[in-house]
């Protein structure tokens, strides 16, 4: 019977640069890469006595090929405009709801019987209905941010975009010209009521309406105002279409405030806000069509 060798603690030489093992990793679906690892703890790179005596000599350097299946880490979904801030997401969604004749990003089909603004034939009576209902909506927005059912509504006070005072001046001018100022009609009353209820229970949806009402007026709203002025007002520019200070800076200030508020929202809350855009367009469109009534 062969005698047993005594068990002794091996003496491990400190690894040198030449004693590190190169290992090449081949990853399916990926790039082949080579890495150098130090020798395993407790294993000498020197040939063993047993191998020298009766077996093949194990070379100091060995090449190992390891095959692995790469696992792809799913990337989080990026929303159009997200990199520039949430307001850019809102703008992107809003532009898609325009028709192609209204905006180059527009994807919505024109409604049956609708006409481009350039071919509108507004009336004084219809325009007054539009102004009166618009004032009711802007009065409602002012009251909501003043009451601030949610604390961050207060951030949107005195933005410089407010229109109630300007509309009051315009309606007074029409009255002085001998026109009768009508009472608010169904489109304006319905929208004002909806905004009041929405602001108490759904802040994300309310911010969607706040953004679209003010920003739409500074863009397409001004174009419509110019068309109406040329057609029935002898090119008179109403106060409704004038702002104190630099309008672009006023708009940027509000963008910054909305982006700051939205930073605290979850992705689900942001999506909910965006989904309200179509309803905002519906209510505003009903008021806008009063111009042609």
TrEMBL record:
Enzyme class: oxidoreductase
SUPFAM superfamilies: Heme oxygenase-like
GO cellular component: chloroplast
Annotated InterPro entries: Haem_Oase (IPR002051), Haem_Oase-like (IPR016053), Haem_Oase-like_multi-hlx (IPR016084), Haem_Oase_decyc_pln (IPR016951)
Organism: Iris pallida (Sweet iris)
GO MF entry, a single one: metal ion binding
UniProt-recorded name of the protein: heme oxygenase (biliverdin-producing)
EC number(s) per entry: 1.14.14.18
Organism classification: Eukaryota, Viridiplantae, Streptophyta, Embryophyta, Tracheophyta
Membership in a protein family: Belongs to the heme oxygenase family.
Record keywords: Chloroplast, Heme, Iron, Metal-binding, Oxidoreductase, Photosynthesis, Plastid, Transit peptide
